[in-house]
Every structure is written in structure tokens, then in C-alpha cells.
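Response to reviewer comment R2.3. The reviewers asked that we include at least one raw input/output pair. We reproduce the pair for SSD domain-containing protein here without editing.
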Amino acid sequence: MALVRRRRGVAGGGGPALAAVAVALMQLVFLVPPTRAQQSNGTSRVVPAEGYCSMYGICAQRSDGKVLNCVNATKAVKPDTLFSARIQSLCPTITGDVCCTVDQFDTLHQQVQQVNNTMTVNGIDYYVTSTYGEELYNSCKDVKFGTLNTRAMDFLGGGAKNYKEWMAFIGRQADLNQIGSPYLITFPSDISGSTAVKPLNATIYSCGDPSLGCSCGDCPSSSVCTGSLLPQLNTETSCSVKMGSLKAKCLDFSLVVVYLVLLCIFLFGAFLHRTRRSGIFSHTKPLKNAEDKIHSSNNGKVPDSSAQVSEAASAPVQSAHPSVIQTYMSTFFRKHGTFVAKHPLLVLFVSLLVPTLLCIGLIRFKVEIRPEKLWVSSGSRAADEKQYFDSHLAPFYRIEQLVLATSAFGGSEAPTIVNDNNMKLLFQIQKKYFQLDPKKYDDSGIDHAKFCFQHYTTEETCLSTFQSPIDPSTILGGFPGNNFTEASAFVITYPVNNKVETIGQENGKAVAWERAYVNLVKEEILPMVLAHNLTMSFSSESSIQDELNRESTADAITIVISYIVMFAYISFTLGDRPSHLLSLFVSSKVGVDNMCILVHAVKRQPDGLDLEERISTALVEVGPSITLASLAEVLAFAVSAINPMPATRVFSMFAAALAVLLDFLLQVSAFVALIVLDFRRAQDGRIDCMPCARVKSSVVASDGGNHQGLPLLARYMKNVHAPILGYRAVKFVVIAVFVGFSFASIALSTRLQPGLEQKIVLPRDSYLQDYFDDLATYMKVGPPLYFVIKNFNYSSASEHTNKICSINQCDSNSLLNEIAKQSLSPETSYIAKPAASWLDDFLIWMSPEAFGCCRKFVNGSYCPPDDQCFLRSDLHNGRPSTTQFKEKLPWFLDALPSSDCSKGGKGAYSTSLDLNGYENGIIQASAFRTYHTPLNKQSDYVNSMKAARDFSSKMSKELQMQMFPYSVFYIFFEQYLGVWKTAIMNICVCLGTVFVVCFVVTSSLWASIIILIVLAMIVLDLMAPYIALVALLTYVYWFPVYAKLGMMAILGIQLNAISIVNLVMSIGIAVEFCVHITHAFMLFFSIVILKPLMTFFEMQIGIGNRESRARQALSTMGASVFSGITLTKLVGVIVLRFAKSEVFVVYYFQMYLALVIIGFLHGLIFLPVVLSLCGPPSKVMKPLEQSQPSASSE
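Raw output as returned:
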């Protein structure tokens, strides 16, 4: 029952105020006023006498039609009886003379009406019971509007969540000049104060009533839908262990337990070691004066020949013959070194000729800049699906966007952007290109825009220019719930037609337009927006590609500076005396490491040897370890080529593996030849920078005596570093800390998230940085999602139609019904709305119940008005026949939506079907569009793609139909679905390859296993963000300390193709920190001079116990590894910190800096301790006989 609230008013809707105005006007016109008239020219004034008029009669009118009185100081006129009666009918109190003509009275009478004694409606209270309201709401809440693929309640009820909100939306009073109720209607359910009122409590049929035949999409509670359950929110929690107030994951807890057990075992073993006799780990007695001989060699002092021969003949030297591989490598490097030393110019010529010939291939060099060709495997599922979608339907539009937003001040929320000034700004922006006329907006103002936000599907004036409704969530952003008028951002989208690219030039005109668009935005639109105190970000389809191209050259100077700094450091390191400032050789950081080791090995040779012997002996000493390190790096980089992404595969094969191989070949050829020439230059007394100039022989002689003992770094390794690591307590701490870090890394590496942030790959000053921030902040809808059906059989004999549609008589578990159910749980399905169905709308469009839709002429052709296409009797079970379907489908796709029929398919479904060959009853491809939920993180993109594919696979099996989901970003995010599998496979294959190489070269399974374990620990520490963070705290100076700990976002490292390649490459680079020390631990060399120009080169294997051999390895190679590998890489990497590109900083500076630090710690601290405790055992052979030296001499 309804109660009417009343009010009195004038006829036509006036009120008391208007009546008072009418009386005042009549008194002003009819009575003799005490006023004065002013002429229109403003030059004279007329002051009437008592009883005279100021104005009388009508003389003219204004441009808008309103009349103007005459200036006439005439005496007031007594009206005749008829005129007086007319005046008194309007105002009975006027009886005397008047200053008014009949024409003036008629004009006034038309504008003023007398107050009527009537009551008008001011509001209605419509009483309903809460039961009725809830049942009505529940019956309608899930009904969807197919064309817009959204729920009808979103626009019919303003997105109401209950019946009270719905009825409040229906009964609200419309603003002036707006469509809606002229008065307020409320729907109270409390009748305590109105006992005579009986609230409405009519019977409501539930949408699930079988008689209504509602589909599952419109009514999930329907009886035919009971067999299909709604998706449930995943509430499963990972395994955890609770200890008091602490809660730890099972994996973390297990690792802690295993670590503590291992630590106890290690402590127990150390205790047993102390209780047993000393030397239990030594298998042989150390060679007498062995260390003295090595130190003597290192210091450059040549022992007396006779004494050496006597010692070699009498001392009980314990030695072993090297393996076949080692013998072959030693023989090869000895002969190779001798040849290069004798023919340096020939070697240099060949070294220059070969690379020159290889450069001929640059003629066919082409730069690939298309992202889908760089980051997507040609055989990937996503690439195939995109190709199918583009070729059968249409490529998705090229998207150009502007995001305008208000700014928050003082910590308050950003104000709404929906106001008159900002709306007019949009017209100004549009006029820059489209030349739109804002007159239509001026006629209705901001109120009409706000009205259309709520009635964008029901009011014709709110439709787009092509008569299609526009969802406000796609053009507004930053609003709470469905309160569109509180939006804080406008999202302006320009869809540009796209074409399938085969050679990369098909969209040339669109790209040119986009670049002009970007320039227009920067130069003209941005200042306009800033003048309105708004912010703006923008993007075009080609923006990312253009910015990546700009980035490719932005850091060229940084890279050049990196090499210059690195080469300056090398010249300082290698040039420890004026006569040995070597020529710089352009190579990679990997090559620089080996160059330093080669130079240090040459310097360690006795000065008494001739140049050929020094070069060949140095190559024999370090050649095998350099070969091992280089070969391991080449294979490690080559393993990365199994990554399916073209960019990383090509980089791994050519930029890394081939480059390292060529580096190695040039190092042992061209660089050795340069060393020979430089030594000859020094012996000839020529200056390095000016080889034509000579210095005095006395200066050269004084320079030759500069080798007074070991360099500072070598003395530190021998006298400080190695002895400290020899203490048992230090060994225990080292093992405990490094193993603990490795266990922590295992736990922390599982927290790595897949993805590659778009902002990271762009320059820091890119305009797209703000755009991606605004997308994450303001967007209320995600990317479009299409479910594509292959080979849809629409014939009457097929069941495909009922398996897909969601209207009456469709299957309860049809595709569209299931999509609608998935949209009810967007947290897990990432589907925001039911799908827009061309099939549902087509079937409704042909239905006789759709009065204003499908019509035809008498001759059977399509006609927008009058006659229906079908009667109910023309359909078979409510479905068109195959012939009818085939005939009317093109009509539907060409029908514009209108107020009479909103189901027209033109525009909404123009690209949703592939009609090629559909006359045979098969539609090759058809798409059903919905939207993903807003995707703000990389994990959201990955999870949404996985959820869509899982759902599509499930439905394909259940319905026995071929289908797949498609969205524009799938092609770039497919790699992350199996990124963990790819990472583990790459790392394991790389570690296995390096292990095999180490075993073949060293012929020691024991040593190869130790190297493998150390490499695995280095990779684990790199994968764990917290361990890397500890090593990098010194450079992340712009973050406060409290924000650094425990936050992977600071490093910004995610698991993707770049980081996987870096991890695999790090194995190859980390080999350098291990193999040189291990090789020096297993082998060291002594030179015995028998007589001038004749030497005996003796390779001694496993001399001394593990402790002494570890010290010897650090003394021999520790300084070279630290200065030639650690510091060289460190100097080159630090410069990358100043790169403009964030991807350089995150994935190269941070990761490689962490690799250098972690590799140094493992190679020069952890590995020597492990070797001293459980290094490869000695291989004891019988002592050398006296005749062996002479037999071995050359």
C-alpha cells in the first residue's frame, strides 16, 4: 500500500513563492508607481507627477522576444468594464486607475497564473514486507545483460547488493531535466506508526521455478543447475609447523632440523679428530724443502745449478705421472707456447685475419625489434593460438590510452574528477584530433553525464555514436564500488585497427599515427591537463617497442665507461713495474680474468730462463685450468640455448658461448703473442707508449732488479689469509656459516616469484613508467578475455548450440553458464563478468518475443521495421533450423542496436565470428568475450592465464568441443607457467656438463664432486634474495635500513628468462673461482736448471698433506684469483650501477655483483677449507731415479 505525501501549489507546478511574485508584478504594472523611467539611450530621465504613469503601452521587443514598454508620462487610465473584470479575475484587489493597456495585460496573463487550491504529490511511501523485497531481489540479482556481458542489476539497480539498495535506486527522485521519477519513492517495511497500512506481500516466483525456464546463467539456483557447483575459493594452506607463537613452513622447519643434525655430526667429527694422532689425514710424508722450492721460484730467485741437480738426485721426491689428458694438454701447451714465442707476428696476423673473415657475416645481419619475435618461441601454444585468433577473427586493436587523474593533497583521498570543468577539458582534448562539437554536452551539462553512468544501457541518449552501451568501468577509474560519480580518473582509449604482421611493415601507417599522437600529447595535451591541476599518463601500442629501442642505446656510454675503467685497472694490476706495462687487449670480462692469470704465470717464471721457455712453462702451468674454466663457461652458456625464447637463446649461443670460445682462442694465441712482443720491447729498452723511443741500458738494468720478493697481495695470501683459514675454529665457523647460508637459500629460493616487471625493462625516464603506475592504481577492469570455439556446428542435428548458449533450453553446464559461474568467484577464476554471447543475442534477436528485432520484407529480405521474421510455429523446439540460422546470421551481424531492439550485433560482434565457409553448417571460429579482473602484479597475469587455461581444458573435455582462451598478454606470459621447471632443468644440465668437463680434464672424481658442490651452493645463494641482499646492502643507500631486510622488492629480481640465463651463466663464471684453486691444490710445478739453455720441467702431483697443499694453492693462485678475477669483475660491474635502464641495474649489476662477492667468498674462503679437510688424496708413486732428470732433459 502506498501513502502519498501532499503539498499545495499553483497550477502547473507553482507554489506560494510564485503567487507572491505574481501579485507584486500586477501591483507594479497596474497601480500608479512612485518611480521614474529611464530611456533606453540612458541620456534623460522622466519623473512622473502624482497620478501619472512612468510607462504606458508596448513599443518594441528585445532580441529574445520579450516586450519593452513605452516611456510615457501619461495620466493613469480608468479601464472599461470588461477590461476591469479581466484585471479583477487575476487580482480582485485592483479597482482603480491603471497604467496598463490590454496588450500589456495579455502579456502578463500569459506569464502568470493564479494559485489553484490543489494538492500535488511530493513523495510516496510504498510499504513492502522484507520477505517480498528479498525474494524479488534474489530472483533478479543474477540476470545478465548479454550484449554488455554484465549483470542487469549493475545498471537496473546501480549495482545493488540487497533489496533495500535496489529499491532505493528505483525510487530516487530525478534531478531537473533528467529521466526518472519526479518525486521520491521510499519502500519502508516498518508499519509500527501506520497501523492502517497493509504492506505488499505478494507471492514471488523464484527464478528457479521450473515454469519460468530460466537459464543457469540468469539463475544459478535453478533446479537444472544443481549438478554444477560454483567454484570455491581456495582455502588450502601450505604445510606449517607451529612452535609456541612462531609458525614456520614445513620446508623451513625440515631444513633447520637437517642443518642442526649435520652441524652436530661435524662437531662430533672434529672432536674425534682432536683425540686421534696428528697427521691422520696425511697419506704421504711431505717433500723435504718442497715449499721452499716453490717459494724460491715465486720470488724469482734462481738456485745454483749444481745444488739443484744434487738435490734432485738425492732427495726422496714423491711424485706421480699425470693422467693421459693432463699429459696431452701439457705437451700441447708446451709446444704451442714455444711456437707462439718464436713466431708472434705470424700468430697475430692469423688472429686478425680469422675474425675479419668472420665479420663478413655481418652483411646478412638484421635487427629484430618485434617483442613477440624476441620473447616468444615460434612453436609455443600461445603463439599458435594468437596466430589462429588473428587469422580467423581479427587481430586485437592497437590500444592508445590517456589516463587523467586528480591528485590527493595533505594525505586525503583524491577528489572526484567528474565535474564540469574536467568534462569540458575532455572535449578540448578530443578536438585536437576528432574536432568534436561539445554543444550536445553544453545542453545538458554534468548532470546528464552522471545520469548516464547509471543508465548507460537503458537510455538512448547515453549510447555511443554507434548505438552501443559503454561500461563506465572502462572509461572511469579510482571509484569505490559502483559509485562512478566519485571516480578520480578518466581513462580515454583510442582503439586503432590492427593488421596481421608477416614482414613487420603492415602497420606502418598506424605506427606513424601513434608517433604523431605521442608528440601531440607531449606538446599540446599535457600542458592543457596540467593547467587544470590534473595529472596525465599515456601510452600507444608502439610505445614499448620505441622505448626499448631508445634504451638499447641509452647505456652505450655506461658500458664503454665500464670497459675503460676495467682496462685501466688491468694496466695498473699487470704493470707492476715500468718495463711490463702490457698492451691492452679488447675482450670481455671473462677474457680479462684469464689474461691476468696468464700474465701472473709468466711473471712467476725464473728470470734466468729465456723467453720461449718462460712462455711455454707458463702455458703448461695455467693452460689446463684456463681451458677447463673456458670450456665450462662455453658449455654453460650453450646450455642456456635450450631456453625456448629466441632472445635468450641467440644471446646464449652467440653473444656468450661463441664469444667466450673466441676469447679463449685469442687469449692463448694473440694475447700470448702480444706478451712476447712486449717482453722483447722491454728487453730492447723501448717505451711501451712510444716503442720507437729507447731508454738507457742502465734504466733497463735497474728495472730488471725490481723483483724483490712477492707482491703485497701474494704476501697477504701466503702469510695472513692462508694461515687464518688453517685454524680449526675458523674452519668450523666457515663450514657452519656457508652451509647455513645454503640451507637458508634453499628455503628462500622457493619464495621467488615468476615474472618480469614491465617498468624494469624501460628507461627510468620513460613516460611509460607513470602509465603503468596509473594502470595499477586506477583501472577497475582487466584485459579482455576471449573463449574461442573451433568448428562450431550450428546445424539442427548438432548439440553444439545448447552446449554453448545460456538462455532458456540451454544445457545447465553449457560454456556460457559455466563462465557466468566462474565470474562469481573472481578471486580464483580471474574472470570479472559473464561473457558477451553473440549466440544468445542472435537466438533472442530471432525470437518472436523480441518485437522490434528480426523483421523482413515480403520478398524475404531484411527490413528494420514491421513484420516479424518468425512465428513461434516457425521454430523447432525454440531453435531455428539450419537454413534459418544460415540465412539470418548475416542480418543479425549487420543490425544496429536501437531503443526498440538492443540485440543488434553490428559493432559488438562484428569480429566475433569467422563466416568463411559457414554455409556448410560449420563456423570455423567464434569468440565469446569477457574480462579478466584487474591485474596489478606479474603473478596476477601468470595466475589468470593458468586459471583460464585450466577452465578451458576442463570445459573442452566435458563438452567434447575444441576451445582455448585468448588474451593479448598470454603470448608474453606463457613462459612463466613452466619457469621453475625450465630453471631447474637448465641449472641441473649445466651443473652436470661442468661436472663432466671437470672430471675429464682433472681425471679426479673427488675434485669434480667438490667443484660441483661449491657451484651448486653459489647458485643457491644467488637464487635466495635475502642472501644477495646481505651482500648488496652497501650500495642500496637510498633505502632506509628498516626497509631493506626481508624485502625482495628492493632487489626487484624475479624468476624469468633473463634471470635463468644469468643463473646458468653464473655457473660458468663461478667455475673460475674454483678450478684454478683446485688445480693448484692438485698440481704444482718446480723448475730444475741443469745447464744453460736446458731445463727439466717437473710436474709434481699431490705433494704434502691437505693442509700444506691448500696453503700452497692459496699462495700460488689466490692473488691471481682475487686480483685477476674478483677485482676485475668488480670494477667492471660497479659502473653498471649508474645505467639508465633499470634492467641493467637489477639483472646485471645486482646479480653479477652478488655473483662476484659470493664467488669470491666460496672460492677463496670456503673451497680452501673444504680442500684442507677432505680434498683429493695424494697419488703416491715411487721416487724419481737419478737418471730421470738427464733422460727428461731436452
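Residues 646-683 form the longest helix (38 residues). Residues 2-118 form one domain. Further pairs are available on request from the corresponding author.
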